[in-house]
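DM from R.C. (forwarded with permission)

"hey, sorry to bug you on a friday — could you get me a structure for this? deadline for the figure draft is monday and I only need the backbone to look sensible"
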Amino acid sequence: MGEEVHVTDDLGFRWQARKNGEVAVTRGGKVVTVLRGDAAREFLADAAGADPLDMQQDLARLTGNYKRGNERLASEHPRNRER
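My reply, with the result:
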């Protein structure tokens, strides 16, 4: 089989190590990024034995799809609060 898909449940990211050494990161069935070379090797080394929930956060950071801490819910924004 060669290629194996790894599923982590929290944020919906999956990653797949390819035969050529690349790592494809998907979300919602679409490839969001492909890691190559040193980045792929480093990711695979970190992924070995890592907690699945921690991996979700790492995958989110790799793809740029994460909150940076300064966002807030639109309903909490002053312009959307009832006066």
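R.C.: lifesaver. The chain has two helices and four strands.
me: no worries. The beta strands are 4-7, 13-17, 23-27, 30-35.
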